[in-house]
Amino acid sequence: MERDYAEDMAESLPSVVAGRWRPGAGPAVRVGRRTLVESLYLLTAPLSAAAGLLLAAGGLCAATAGSLVPSGSPVTARALALARWPGDLEWWRIGAVRSRTGGARGAGRRPRSKEPDGAADPELWLDLAHAVLVLPVVLVTSVVTGLWWFVGVATATYPLRNQVTPGSLRPMTLYAGSDRSHVALSLGLTSPSGRIAFALSVGLLLLSSLPLVTRVCVSAQAGLGQALLSNMSALHRRISGLERERDTARAQAVAAVTAETAALRRLERDIHDGPQQQLVRLAMELGRAQHHFDSRPELVRAALADAVLRTQEALDELRALSRGIAPPVLTDRGLREALRALAARSVVPAELDAVALSRRLEPGIETAAYFVVAEALTNVAKHSHARRCAVGLRHTGGILRVWVTDDGVGGAAPAEGHGLRGLADRARAVGGRLRVDSPEDGPTTVTAELPCH
């Protein structure tokens, strides 16, 4: 039994040393310890607040001076860190007093932004605002706490500091004001026993209410610190993140509109230069056949034969254009087979390096990947002077990568056109990006990375 008791005492020692209260401690003991800790926090606050204000002001001035000096970035960074140190100290003090008065555990190291913005960091200005605003608050709370302790202890120890003499005493009078103008309040208390009873009553009243006074003062002072020193810039970063998402969505919408506009213009040009011309010529041939139908049968037969040829050519061109709008092989058989068909139809011999996808992707992602490869193969045929090219497809980590590599002359860049800006817009429209690696003398690799989950 003695050994168990000793083990229990040994286990309880760390918590007592750390300042935390054992569950078995009486309410009076817990309240007394809490009041002592809170009083220590309040009475030492003016010193830390005054030193903190001086450090914050000095750090801000040093950072300003460092920003005016060439290559003064390290000086500015250290000065701003010095200006924020008082806030870190007060955050630690708040955590210490909270953990040692039965509240939450210590706050520990104050959370900081992962990417501080220097003078533009809102946390820095919140720290400076705390250094300025906390000084008058701590002056009030420390004076109230000090006076409460002083008057309470003085009145409670009155019988120990004064000898009791028999007989009548002069009435006790309280004065408020100056010698010329004051208010006097006579309390009577002409007997020694009456004065002792009054002093003990006032002392007990003040000391018993002291825990409530210190708790209110700590709540006001620590509340101000937590409001200003907490990681308030998380809201600012969240707003900035939402703004970036909004800008990204706008950029994607603009890119989508730009890509679709370019596609429609290209389709309009292709229809005008291809099927429309064939249909116009077909109409002319049919009109000529109609005009000579009775008089020159041989000319009519030739015109009809030419009309059939023009009709077949127009159908072929319309089929080719329809593949640029909604390729059936992509819809029916998936992206890998659609890329295989593109590689088979490529003017420059193309090799397909595509792994099988585990599932069908979103239609928008598949369409964007298909047209990126199709346009890239067209660019290879028109501009690269390549003898061979390769088409690749991979889907890893939520990213779909398609690429086209050729052994041509190189030197391609999105800024120089060649349809690459349209490809970049198409990739950006679905939240992806386009990379072009094309040194002089080749080889050229056009890679589209598209997000898909």
- Number of β-strand runs: 7
Q: What's the main sheet like?
A: 5 strands, mixed
Number of helical segments? Answer: 14
State the oligomer: single chain
List segments where confidence is low: pLDDT < 50 over at least 5 consecutive residues: 1-21
- The fraction of residues in strands falls at 5-15%
Determine the N-to-C terminus distance: 63 Å
Name the structural class.
alpha+beta
Radius of gyration, whole Å: 43 Å
Task: Give the tally of structural domains.
Answer: 3
Strand order of the largest sheet: 3-4-5-7-6
User: What is the element string, with H for helices and E for strands?
Assistant: HHHHHHEEHHHHHHEHEEHEE
Average pLDDT confidence is 75
**What is the global morphology?**
rod-shaped
Topology of this structure?
Blueprint: H1 2-17, H2 27-43, H3 45-68, H4 73-99, H5 122-156, H6 158-161, E1 172-177, E2 182-188, H7 192-229, H8 233-273, H9 275-291, H10 297-325, H11 328-333, H12 335-345, E3 350-354, H13 363-384, E4 389-396, E5 399-406, H14 420-429, E6 433-437, E7 444-451
Parallel strand pairs: 3-4
Antiparallel strand pairs: 1-2, 4-5, 5-7, 6-7
Short description:
With 453 residues, the protein is α+β, with helices and mostly antiparallel strands.
Could you characterize what this model shows?
With 453 residues, the protein is of the alpha+beta class. It folds into three domains: 26-167 and 188-231, no CATH class; 274-325; 332-453, Histidine kinase-like ATPase, C-terminal domain (Heat Shock Protein 90), CATH 3.30.565. It contains 14 helices and seven strands. The protein has helices spanning 2-17, 27-43, 45-68, 73-99, 122-156, 158-161, 192-229, 233-273, 275-291, 297-325, 328-333, 335-345, 363-384, 420-429; strands at 172-177, 182-188, 350-354, 389-396, 399-406, 433-437, 444-451. The strands form two sheets. A five-stranded mixed beta sheet has the order 3-4-5-7-6. It has a two-stranded antiparallel sheet with strand order 1-2. A hairpin with a 2-residue loop joins strand 4 and strand 5. Helix 3 runs antiparallel to helix 4 (73-99), helix 4 packs parallel to helix 5 and helix 13 packs antiparallel against helix 14. It is rod-shaped. It starts with a helix and ends with a strand.
